[in-house]
Sequence to fold (316 residues):
Amino acid sequence: MVRLNRAKVEEALDILKQLGFPHQQQNDRSALTLLALLDLKPSDSWSSSSNPMLGITPMMDWFKKYYGKNYAPNSRETVRRQTVHQFLQAALIVENPDKPDRPTNSGKTVYQIDGSALELLRLYGTDQWTSLLDMYLKERPALQEIYEKRRSTGKIPIKISSRMEVRLSSGGQNALVGMVCAEFVQRFVPDGVLLYVGDTAKKFVYFDRQGLEDLGVALEPHGKIPDVVIHDVRHNWLFLVEAVTSHGPINAKRRKELQAIFAHSKAKPVYVTAFSDRNVMKRFITDISWETEVWVADTPDHMIHFNGERFLGPYA
Fold:
């Protein structure tokens, strides 16, 4: 029989305390739930945390398998009501990121650590933890508002043309992708044509294969495609936009990857990293590549140009 590994559980309890959870959630049940949702086994480092999607019963099976904590089957509702519900309220986790419209009482309901929280928790025990924790806690009220809105509205509509609309699932960075397709395009690419829109749950939610092939671009299904691709017909520019909530911006490495993917494009590429607000941007500021653009959704009328020779536009 596996015995409860107190060291990792105590660290999880410390995190819950620092995140501001009340005393009722500072217990082994909540600590184990956090560890399960991070798939963090006793010998794993926090930097190896991941965010699988798990239902309540698989979580409890995980407690038993890796930490030797065997809760009775009738404890499922306690885990749900006294831990998972509070994690949801705090925007630490999201519900049904794979299918946001899943019925509330569905036996297939799953939960996942939010991407922003995952990036923070991977840094527990490092020198960066305190400063990023402070930043995360300042952002959390806004996160809670976003997730409440996602739960109430379901899917996110994207207008492709006057005759066509697609809907993104409400998980991951899709709310920001929706703002790129509406607010960014309206202001900076008003004559633009959407050629590709990615979805957290379904990568190719919109894909104009012919439009891209006409420009000399062939996208591979398993390639590292940007979140949004827009053709500025008037200038013959191709906007390659990465929406960043938890993963990195267009850094030097990512820029080279995109250069290779769109090497044969007849339209010149413009690299854009989109953030929801400047607090998120600050976390990644040192990684952003020169000769790229930054757009921040909460100040949508402005662009930040990480350029030396010119303002908005492609480079040779």
About this structure: The radius of gyration is 21 Å. The chain has a mean pLDDT of 86. Residues 129-153 form the longest helix (25 residues). Residues 216 and 265 are 5 Å apart (CA to CA).
